[in-house]
Specification:
It contains twelve helices and 18 strands. The chain is of the alpha/beta class. The protein folds into two domains: 283 residues, Alpha-Beta Barrel (TIM Barrel); 93 residues, Sandwich (Immunoglobulin-like), CATH 2.60.40. Helix 5 links the parallel strand 3 and strand 4. The mean pLDDT is 96. The structure holds alpha-D-galactopyranose.
Length: 387
């Protein structure tokens, strides 16, 4: 893909942080690249393999260059990049706006152009750029603009993934900074409340996502089941149910978030693979126009809860992707009136519905569709207008 397509659609890939945090090394990254091919992740659209924090030494070298930790990465980053590229995949790396990364390794503050050149030299295709240890008086906006320019001028296509956790009204200025995606929330945890709170916090913000600058709701916790060496992420309670992971993946997909896997895909079970590689859901996320999904509140009108809603995403071929989400703790019927999407009865239009999780046609519906959705679950359909 050429420069002008970089970041057009939400990036898809894997990131080391959720499961492995500091415990990373080149063999792990190679194994993940192998599994991308052998288990079908690449064919499903996953492309980037990203090393998060804790990859470098604690000090730069005498020329001010970052140094990969030789114990974790004895062959060096260039060799690892070659390995990943040979498989037709892309390689991501991590740094930070501030003087140090969140885990205390050197950050790129005042080294932006030098580091961008080094990343290009190593063959990096993606940079996640965090927000810790930012000098208090410096403008974060300006520092993201700096690194964005440094990357766009380093001689290599490097996707820029900003990560300031939604601070400083980031959604107002991040698109014009040149970043391709931006974190809009604090760090996800492998539990249902975290998934629910992140999703609800991003409702009605669909104008802040789109091609070339996607709202990143954080890495996926699908398939972690509490398995992380970071006790805060796993919250020490054993993760989520399969239905909750399915709902999480559906929300992130419909809402246009990048899809960055965070579990140990070397040991993923079949349910995890079926969720992460559901092509009907991925197709909604990767629709070329990248429209934000708007919310419709369910009937009756006196029912006020952010935990129950429909999301509608207009697709480039005229279809509608519709998610019926029940994040509450009790089963509910979610009634969708078609006029709320611009389809009055008088138009003569019906909707032919295809269930993206059951992978089957549901039939043709006029005026209204009202699935019963269990607690913490969802129904996602692709609807085609028919006369
Ligand atoms: C921050 C980010 C996380 C992760 C860690 C690494 O908390 O939000 O996604 O990158 O730093 O230290």
């Amino acid at each position: 893909m050429g420069r002008y397509h970089l970041g057009a659609m939400p990036p898809m890939g894997w990131n080391s942080w959720n499961t492995f945090t500091w415990d990373i090394n080149e063999q792990l990254i190679r194994d993940v690249a192998d599994v991308f091919i052998s288990d079908g992740y690449k064919d499903a659209g996953y492309e980037y393999i990203v090393i998060d924090d804790c990859w470098s030494l604690k000090e730069r070298d005498k020329d001010g260059r970052l140094v990969a930790d030789p114990e974790k990465f004895p062959s060096g980053m260039k060799a690892l990049a070659d390995y990943i590229h040979d498989k037709g995949l892309k390689f991501g790396m991590y740094s930070c706006v501030g003087t140090h990364t969140c885990a205390g390794f050197p950050g790129s503050f005042e080294h932006e152009f030098q580091d961008a050149e080094l990343f290009a030299e190593w063959g990096i295709d993606y940079l996640k750029y965090d927000y810790c240890f930012k000098p208090r008086q410096m403008s974060g906006e300006l520092l993201y603009k700096r690194m964005s320019l440094a990357l766009k001028n380093c001689g290599r296509d490097i996707l820029f993934s900003a990560c300031n956790w939604g601070e400083d009204n980031v959604n107002k200025w991040i698109r014009s900074s040149g970043a391709h995606m931006y974190r809009s929330t604090g760090d996800i945890q492998d539990n249902w409340d975290s998934i629910k709170n992140i999703a609800i916090s991003q409702l009605d913000k669909e104008c802040y996502t789109g091609s070339y600058c996607h709202n990143d709701m954080d890495m996926l916790v699908v398939g972690m089941y509490g398995g992380s060496n970071n006790g805060w992420i796993s919250s020490k309670i054993g993760g989520c149910s399969d239905n909750e992971y399915k709902t999480h993946f559906s929300l992130w997909s419909l809402m246009g978030s990048p899809l960055m896997i965070g579990c140990d895909i070397r040991n993923a079970n079949q349910v995890t693979k079926d969720i992460l590689m559901n092509r009907d859901i991925i197709a909604i996320n990767q629709d070329i126009e990248c429209r934000g999904a708007y919310r419709i509140k369910p009937e009756p009108q006196w029912f006020h809860s952010d935990e129950v809603f429909m999301l509608v995403k207009v697709l480039s071929n005229g279809d509608l992707a519709i998610g019926f989400f029940n994040l509450s703790d009790t089963q509910r019927e979610l009634s969708l009136q078609f006029w709320d999407m611009g389809i009055p009865y008088a138009s003569g239009c019906s909707l032919s519905m295809y269930d993206c999780w059951e992978h089957k046609e549901l039939g043709v519906f006029k005026e209204r569709f009202a699935p019963v959705v269990p607690a913490h679950d969802c129904v996602v359909v692709r609807a085609k207008l028919v006369k």
